[in-house]
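Comment thread on ticket #2218

A.B. wrote:
> Attaching the input chain for the structure job we discussed in standup.
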Amino acid sequence: MRKLALRVLSFMTFGILIAWSWIALAQNTPSGFGDVTSTSNVGVSGTGTAQGGKLIDVIKSFINWMLGILALIALVILLWGGFQMVTAAGDDGKYKKGFKILQQAAIGLVFIGVSWLIVSVIFWLLGVIGV
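C.D. wrote:
> Ran it. Output below, let me know if you need it in another format.
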């Protein structure tokens, strides 16, 4: 049982790290963030030098924000599934239910990561063609 708890804990830690990196990647943080005297922030929304942006930037920020929230929700579900597995106390049905929750949350995190990648590529392409 101790080996199982250690394995689940390491899997949950790995899931937390993956989710945290996706949340961090979903944030559109420019270089020099917070330095309002820097000229590299000119035209960057929310840095103090330009309060506003193109509609496409607002849409991209909203989508990235929503994907971050979804990743956080999936992380909580991942933790709940791991908790169910660890506290199963030999009950095979409860363990399988927790493992199924864990699998579904992991699949959800993968979908969130792939959708972030797709959204980033689409908006990059839109930026290249000058929309």
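A.B. wrote:
> Thanks. Noting for the ticket: The chain has a mean pLDDT of 77.
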